[in-house]
Amino acid sequence: MNEYNFLNLSSFEFENFSRDILQEKLDVFFESFTSGQDGGIDLRATINKDENIIVQAKRYTKYSDLKSTLKNELKSVQSLKPDRYIITTSVGLTPPNKAEILKLFHPFIKSTEDILGQTDLNNLLGLHPKIEEKYYKLWLTSTNILNRLINSTVYNQSKFELDEIKETLKVYVQNNSFKEALDIIKTNNYVIISGIPGIGKTTLSRMLVYRLLAKDFDDFVYVSDSINDAYSYYEDGKKQIFFFDDFLGRNFLETGLSVNEDSKLLKFIEKIRKSKNKIFILATREYILNQAKNSFESLNNPALELVKCTLDLSKYTKIIKAEILYNHLFFADVPKKHIQNLVKNKSYVKLIEHRSYNPRIIETFVQNQFWDDCEPEEFSKTILSFFDNPESVWLHAFENTISKGSQITLLILSTIGTPVLLEDLRIALNSFIIANVQKYPLKIDSIEFRKIIKELESTFISTKMDSYKKIAIEFQNPSIQDFLINYVKGKNELIEDLINSFSFVSQFFRIFTFDKSENEFNRRISLNNNLLEKYVDKIISDFTLFKSSYIYRANFANSNRFGWYKTDGFKYSFLIQILEELENSSNQKLYDFVIQEFQQSIEPEFEGYSERKSYIKLLKKLKKNEIIISSEKLIKDFAKKVNSIESLKDFSSLKELFSDEYEDFVSSPKFVNKIEEVVEYEIDSTEVNQYEQLIDELKELEKDFDYLLDAEINNLSEKHAELMDEIDRKMEKEDMDYSYEAQEYEEAMEREEQFISNLFDGLAEE
What we know:
Blueprint: H1 11-26, E1 31-32, E2 43-47, E3 51-58, H2 63-80, E4 84-89, H3 95-104, E5 115-116, H4 118-127, H5 129-134, H6 136-139, H7 143-151, E6 153-155, H8 162-171, H9 176-188, E7 190-195, H10 201-214, E8 219-223, H11 227-233, E9 240-244, H12 252-255, H13 261-274, E10 278-285, H14 286-295, H15 302-306, E11 308-311, H16 318-331, H17 336-343, H18 348-352, H19 359-367, H20 379-388, H21 392-400, H22 404-416, E12 420-421, H23 422-435, H24 446-456, E13 461-465, E14 471-475, H25 478-488, H26 492-501, E15 512-513, E16 525-526, H27 529-542, E17 551-555, E18 562-566, H28 571-582, H29 588-600, H30 609-622, H31 631-640, H32 645-652, H33 659-666, H34 669-685, H35 691-705, H36 710-733, H37 752-765
Parallel strand pairs: 3-4, 4-5, 6-8, 7-10, 7-11, 8-9, 9-10, 15-16
Antiparallel strand pairs: 1-2, 2-3, 12-14, 13-14, 17-18
Helix pairs in contact: 11-13, 16-19, 16-37, 17-37, 22-23, 22-24, 23-26, 26-27, 28-29, 28-30, 32-35, 35-36
């Protein structure tokens, strides 16, 4: 039997729980009168038309508090004169405690059996498991389930933290989206959770993960940056849950998807859909999903719409909105006088019905404890101001709760983008201070820098240490980056100070653009002519001094270990980004500079994936501009760097640029041997469960080079078929339990306004 203390239920939830468990125990229907000044009645039932039963549900930690409250209730009970009076409480009661309460309410409490303490309620739950299943906050925080969650194999992120699970569950309000998402998973094995920023996509996804892990899944894989992570940790025969948060990437609007990421993603989704023991949960902001559909035809797929669970405020009833606000305030221990100010004149109604209602605003308000900075009589006005201007939540924290050094660090971080190595952030900060020493007379040594990071951590940023103790910085959530962009916008002097200090390539493109067109996807800052001139001069004068801050996360197979690594080289990537910016704006000076720099580096000097791609893009864009190229030498030099199927694909793109020279070269015995070596290496180094993807790549290779690989493909197909047959045999022996039953959240009650009013009246009385 589980031992719950019931304190992760709010007073309102505990009352509903008491109603449900007593209805099962007594087999009678109880009327609910919600929270608030109830006149001594929480629940009421009538038996045989003449026996009147009244119930009071009391959520307390200590017996002394319970006893004090019960004494105050005595007059009300004596006035009501029930035939039977029942008390439920979260307090653990001893026999003397029960005897004292029985004596206090004589003759209305007939026996100590009508005084149900913590132990009694747990005993009843053991007899009525359906009630336990309904109250997910209880069973998900039971010792058995928590141990299962915490001890689950979790790849690609930290182990689940006990406190984190408990805090998420406390404030979570289950709504129809939870059941909708589970139903989609039951049918398709995967679901896309979409919606506006702050609507609760990640929270819903986490709740789904907790639920599924509690239902006997083995592994949880957090997909951090690329679908390649999912492929790496995919294991046939294991019950696995994959979660790809922000799956189109926080940087999608600036840099797009990496090459073939869209096709790899769709292939993985199809792999999951056909599986019998895998679940895939994806979350994304709706506006980015729409932009991705415009950019990638493969993602504009009707099938993806069918598995999309869109979190929309229109799906949040007034009662759900009220409960979300109530739960956050209840568990945040907001001072009673502040709550009373909110309840007075029903100010909470303005919040619940506000056009900018958003769970993240409430969450941020509570996390930053803004009530510490306002008098009780100003509490309603203060919280309403955050709803009127959502970014004011971050503005208040930015301008009033952190030091000048922390403010500058955040502004610089917004230009670099995240994740970024801690050491690179410090380099950029030092560069800003040196470039603007007269304006910002700050001295930030290593000790002061550590203080800044500590001050920003948990509220604005998070830190992630890899297995080599290398630390990367990320924003806590995307809305902080959005706020910082809007904060910088229009502050031309500040923008100039930032530009003058740039030391990393990414700083030129993360939040600034040449494009002056207005559209919903253009969330960067358009530079005016004066700032653009400074920007161009900075690139040209310091081009050879800039460094790369781009990092990626590399995970070690079959372990939780990972490392932060920088991409190899960045010169070609820098030049192509400049050219792509120039597509929306003309600047001959910068254009000529790109041609000049590329001409000097025309011989392939790249190392790594992104530089190779960028080099090819530059060739395609600038070949017509009379760049002097020795095509034969270029093809030979490029071929020397071919060492994978991916690089062979890139090499094949030279065909459209230098068709004659290319055809002569690829038909040579030496290059044919190169293809054979690459194919042999790829087959030898690929795990069996990755054969399906490799087969597709080999088929594409056949088309690109008109080179038959029938024997290799057939061999791989046979091995893959054998593996799938073996898995099917195993799965037939297992009884896969897809028990995705989810409690339907109660429909909006009759007399909705009275319900909400009583709910918050009860909060003021706590």
